[in-house]
Amino acid sequence: MRKVILMMSVSLDGFIEGPNREIDWHLVDDELHRYLNEELAGMGGFLAGRVTHQLMADFWPTADADPANAGPMAEFAEIWREMPKTVFSRTLERADWNTTIAREVVAEEIEALKARPGGDLALSGADLAASFRRLDLIDEYRILVHPVLIGRGKPLFSASDTTTHLHLTGTRTFGNGVVRLHYRRPLPDGA
């Protein structure tokens, strides 16, 4: 069965964006971008909220047409265009680029999506992640912690009354100081 994997970048103090939605503090150099391309190219689909999807759709479909975006950026543009995408939105009327619109996060529908053949599903967006977390639909967390404190903004995790125990499966430190933390839910046997 496919897994839902939350993949997000955060500041050391836990924010995904600053108070004015700025993400200029993200340290995505060629090494990190190549790693992300490798991880994401093997996925079976992208799951995103409307805001995240529209930000991606405004840039990535033609990013590789700009010679300034050579290398890993151009490679990701192709990955993004070709990857099946599901955008969760109550208001979006239409979506291009191999995208399906879902109006609500319904546990049974996500479980059916996970049961289909193919690679794992990359989840992004803090609000959407909160909905998935409430329904206990996230199997793994791959969090990229950037070496910066931004003080305030949108946190990755909203307040919750739920405790989720996780098992650390690995870490990786990149040359730019970003650290990837990889957690998964414990297996039924406790491992």
Write structural notes for this entry.
It is built from five helices and ten strands; from the N terminus they run E-E-H-E-H-H-E-E-H-E-H-E-E-E-E. It is of the alpha/beta class and 191 residues long. Helix 1 runs parallel beside helix 3. The longest helix is centred in the N-terminal third of the chain and has 12 residues, at 30-41. It starts with a strand and ends in a 7-residue tail after the last strand. The mean pLDDT is 93.
Instruction: Estimate what percentage of residues fall within beta strands.
Output: 25-35%
Cα(first) to Cα(last) distance is: 18 Å
User: Using only CA atoms, what is the Rg?
Assistant: 16 Å
Helix content: 25-40%
Low-confidence segments:
none
Tally of helical runs: 5
What order do the helices and strands follow?
EEHEHHEEHEHEEEE
Mean pLDDT: 93
How many strands in all? 10
Structural class: alpha/beta
Q: Please describe the biggest sheet, giving its number of strands, its sense, and whether it closes into a barrel.
A: 8 strands, mixed
Biggest sheet: strand arrangement:
5-4-3-6-1-7-10-9
Can you tell me the overall shape? globular
Helices and strands in order:
Blueprint lengths: L3 E8 L3 E3 L12 H12 L3 E5 H10 L12 H11 L2 E4 L10 E4 L4 H9 L5 E4 L1 H9 L5 E7 L7 E2 L11 E7 L5 E6 L7
Parallel strand pairs: 1-6, 1-7, 3-4, 3-6, 4-5
Antiparallel strand pairs: 2-8, 7-10, 9-10
Helix pairs in contact: 1-3
